């Protein structure tokens, strides 16, 4: 039995035009410590699957189980990082993390503060602990959000396009930050990440789940990324294994299209 088990998952939404099936027949067994990316075109159901794991959406069919327990709602065993940071703007960096720790951990205030400080240091934000989110750059805000998610020590980290709003350089250092934290945690944290970025998925993941387009989206293919770790971003892109995986993913994601010099032209 896997750590995170998605069985025959279906999620549909009631709409004025009737039932809209967003995803169906989703089967995925995730081992403890795996890094999984979910990739697919806009609207194919990535966030829907993520929200079902997070417990924000209840399956209309099938189930999601964590450590053999059916997920019935959000819980401290799953930390979530969204693209838009979702920090409380009236609390300082330190208070934002403390608030999360305080809400889920039954330990002394001193111990809670120690956890906050430790996590702030891990993402190199200790010097900025008294700033409000509005006084931070996008990358810094996302580092706070990641530190907050790690501070509650969840078994599963759910990253919903966490670096989508960041520039390429900041994005690169944030990816390293996540891998650093994952390594510090003895690679025991299970990470499920949504991304639109094939290179990001290849750099970080053990497996990449490629979804078909919706409605009623299903898994098109699960691509294994057997590139050895630690991965050096500059070196791996030159390896034949990486190039073959990248081409395969590009093919899976673009074979309905023909790319012409002025852009993508729909064929079918
Ligand atoms: N509450 C809802 N009611 C009706 N339809 C919904 C609802 N939430 C999502 N959907 C639909 O389900 C489908 C999947 O949405 P979802 O947000 O999971 O896609 P996504 O792959 O995460 O997209 P993106 O990459 O653009 O963020 C879309 O067609 C969306 O319109």
Automatic annotation (TrEMBL):
Write down the SUPFAM superfamilies for this protein, in alphabetical order: P-loop containing nucleoside triphosphate hydrolases
- Outline the extent of the ABC transporter domain: 4-238
Keywords from UniProt, A to Z, are: ATP-binding, Cell membrane, Membrane, Nucleotide-binding, Transport
Q: How does it sit in the membrane?
A: Peripheral membrane protein
Q: Which InterPro entries match?
A: AAA+_ATPase, ABC_transporter-like_ATP-bd, ABC_transporter-like_CS, ABC_transporter_ATP-bind, NO3_transporter_ATP-bd-like, P-loop_NTPase
Pfam family, any one: ABC_tran
Write down the superkingdom of origin.
Answer: Bacteria
One cellular component (GO) term of this entry: plasma membrane
Q: Which GO terms describe its molecular function?
A: ATP binding; ATP hydrolysis activity; nitrate transmembrane transporter activity
Compartments where found: Cell membrane
Its protein name is Sulfate ABC transporter ATP-binding protein
Q: Which organism is it from?
A: Flavobacterium hydrophilum
